[in-house]
Design goal:
The protein is mainly alpha-helical and about 100 residues long. About 65% of the residues lie in helices and about 5% in strands. It has one domain (about 5-100). The protein is built from six helices and two strands. α1 packs across α3 (about 35-45) and α1 (about 5-15) crosses α4.
Length: about 100
């Protein structure tokens, strides 16, 4: 998949569910690639949206994922440790009102 498609799917997944690995993956992508967020939001808007995507739902899922990080980290190998605050800084930059 094209990296833009991956980012669009990761944003959608972070809005839909609370899994640390989705937030971690999204962080690594933003860290390692130059991503045009406006282009990604436009791409998401063209997809089938099962439930609204918003920054609010992403942040709510992050709170849950952050609490479950230790449990999930034991099941999945991560290439590097990422501080919660670093992921939170990234999430603050993802300004999505509501995509329906």
């Amino acid at each position: 998949m094209d990296i833009r498609e991956i980012v669009a799917e990761k944003i959608r997944s972070t809005s839909d569910r609370a899994r640390y690995r989705d937030f971690y993956d999204l962080f690594q992508i933003f860290k390692n690639y130059k991503i045009n967020l406006k282009e990604i939001i436009k791409l998401i808007s063209q997809k089938e949206i099962r439930k609204p995507i918003s920054q609010k739902s992403i942040l709510l899922n992050w709170k849950i994922a952050k609490q479950e990080k230790a449990v999930e980290s034991q099941k999945i190998y991560y290439s590097e440790e990422v501080a919660n605050r670093e992921i939170e800084k990234m999430l603050e930059k993802i300004e999505i009102k509501i995509i329906k």
